[in-house]
C-alpha cells in the first residue's frame, strides 16, 4: 500500500469503461447500466421510418431483477428444479430449459472470410473537396457522418491471432442522411483475382488445408502457393502480402484502399472515376516478423487490445479520406492502366490522392456480438452520387455480400439489427421473414396502391433518388477478359523496386520462409520462375535460401520496367510521425527514485504516449524513497507491447557482477547482484526490434549486461529523466531505429 507520507507514482493508462466492482457480491438491486450515449443503438423504426418505441426500451437489460425472456422475475438461477435435494431434474423447469436452449444457440456462423475482426464507432467529417465531383450529401463541406469501422484479417477463424501475415480488411459503414454507404476495402490496394468467379478458388487455397485444417491464418502452405503460382494474376497481391504491409504494427497505422474504381456523379449527372484511399494520421507502420510471431503467442488479441486502449485513452485513431480522380473515358484507362483491373494500382505520382475528409474513431463498441459480429457490410450499399463500375470483381461482390448474410445473420431482415440500421428513413415495402422486428403499419405493401394513399412514393432526382450511371452497354455474351488484364508481372516488379532496401530484405525473407514451408518442390520451382520475372536479385536470394538454382526469366513473358513509385515505400529516411498513442515502458524497482520515475511519466504523458510502469510484481511496489503503481509486472510484459523503454533503475556496474546466473528472479537480493533477467530479455528483444532504449545514468550498466553499447544507435543515456525521455520520444517519432536493422551491404 502507498504510504501517504512518502511519494507514490501512478501512470496507469485508463483500462476499461466499467464501474469498479465491490469485493463482495452486491446484495441490493440497482438499475442496469445504460450503454454510453455515443454508442446507443439508433431508435427502432417502423418500415415507414417512424419510431415504434422509445429508444430507452430497446436496451437489452431494462430492470433491476433477473427475469425469464418473457419478464417473469426469478428467485434462483443456480439450481435446477429437482424432485428432492438429491433427486432428478424435472422437465417442468422452464427456466432451466430456456437458459440452456438459448445458450445452445448463441453462436452464429462466422464470416466465411474476414472472420477475425474488431470494430469501433467514429465520425467522418467531409472537407467539401469532393462536393464538385459528387452530389452525395455526406461529401458536402463540413457534413459530419457517424460511421462504424470493422478491421479484420482474411484467412483465420474468429478465434485466431490478430497478427498473422495476411491482408487486413478495412470496412467502413457511413450512416449518411441519404442511406448507408459501405466502403468495404482492404489495407492492400490490389486483389488476388480479376473476376469474382475465382473467389471460392483463392479462398479455398488460402484457408487451412481441408485434410488436417492447418495452418491457421497463414499463407505459408502448399495449397496457397499452388494456386497463386498457377494463377499468375495473383502475383501482385502476393508480393504485397510478402511485404511489411501484411504485418501492420497496429490497425491504427494501416492504409486502407477501396481497391476498385468507382464512379462519382455530380448534380448535373457528370461523372468521374475514382479510387478511394485512407491515410492514417499516425503513419503507415508494420511489425517485424519476429515481433509478429512473438505477439501471436504472447497476446493473440494484441491489435484488438491496442485499438481499444488507444480509443479508451483518448489517442483517437484518424485517417484522411482521399480520392485519386480520373476522367470517365470510354476506354476506362489512365496512363495505359486499365481502371477496371483490380490487380493494378495507379501510382500516386501519376494521380495524387486528394483529401476529401477525415475519419476519427471515437468510441469502442458496447457489445462485441451485437455490433462487431452482427455488422453486415455490402459494396452494393450506395448513396446518390457514388456508383459502381464494371470491374468484374466488384460486380460479383454485389451479389455475394447480400447472399452471405442470409446464412450468417439468419434471414433477410439483417438490416434491422441495430448496428446495421440506416439513420435515414426507411420505407422499403419488404415484409415479414425471419427475425422481423418492425411493426409495419398499413395494408398495402405493394405499388401501385390506393389503399395506403399511394405511399410510399417514388422519389425524383430532386428528392434525392439514386440513379445508376447510364453507361452504354453492348457486346456478345462471352466468358473472357480484356487483353489489358494480361500483364501480371510489371506492377509486382514496380512494387518491389519502389521499396526501401530494408523492406526489400523483408520481402525476400518472407518469400523464403513461406516457400520453405511448401512441401512440393514443383510448387516452389514454379513460384521461383515467377520471381525471376519480377526481379533477378529477389529470385536469386530466395532461391539461395531454398537451396535451389535461380531460374532464368521466361523470355516469352513481356515485363515492363515501370518507373518506381516512391509513395509505395513505408520506410522513408528522416521521416517522422506523431507519437500520440505510442507505448512507452518505464522499468522501475526498489532502486528507482520516485522523482525520476515521475519525470519520465510526465514527459511521456505530456506527448500523449501510453505509459506503462514495469515493476517486479503486480500492485504497488517499493521505490528507493516511496512507492509506485505497477501497470505491467516484468513477468507479464513482452517487447511487442512497447515502442520504447526507459530504465530508471540503479544497477551494479557489470564488472562487479560475478555472473548473470546469480541474478535469479525472486531471490531477495537479486537486484543487488545485477539486473533482473526479465529486464535483460526485454532489452535484447527491443534492441533487435530497432526500438528506442533510454536509461538514466545509474541504469546504464544494465545495458552493458544486455550486450548493448551506450553508443549503439537509438540508445540514450545522457541527461536527467526528462531529457532522456525527450530523446527517446524523438526516436519513437521515427517509428524504429532503422540503422540497427539496415540490410547488410
Ligand atoms: Fe470480400 C467480407 C473486402 C472481394 C465476398 N470482404 C469482406 C470483408 C472485407 C472484404 C473487408 C469483411 C467485412 C466485415 O468486416 O464484415 N472482399 C474485400 C475486398 C475485395 C473482396 C477489398 C476485393 C477487392 N469478397 C470479395 C469477393 C467476394 C467476396 C470477390 C465474393 C465473390 N467478402 C465476401 C463475403 C464476406 C466478405 C463472403 C464474408 C462476410 C461478409 O462478406 O459479410 O461475402
From TrEMBL:
UniProt key word Ribonucleoprotein: no
Record-listed cross-link 3'-histidyl-3-tyrosine (His-Tyr), residues: 378-401
Binding site for heme: 111, 150, 199, 397, 401, 408
One GO CC term, this protein: cytosol
Low complexity biased stretches: 36-50
UniProt domain Catalase core: residue ranges: 67-455
Pfam families: Catalase, Catalase-rel, Catalase_C
Active-site feature positions: 114, 186
Domain of life: Bacteria
Role noted for this protein: Decomposes hydrogen peroxide into water and oxygen; serves to protect cells from the toxic effects of hydrogen peroxide.
Family the entry assigns: Belongs to the catalase family. HPII subfamily.
Descriptive protein name: Catalase
Biological classification of the source: Bacteria, Bacillati, Actinomycetota, Actinomycetes, Micrococcales
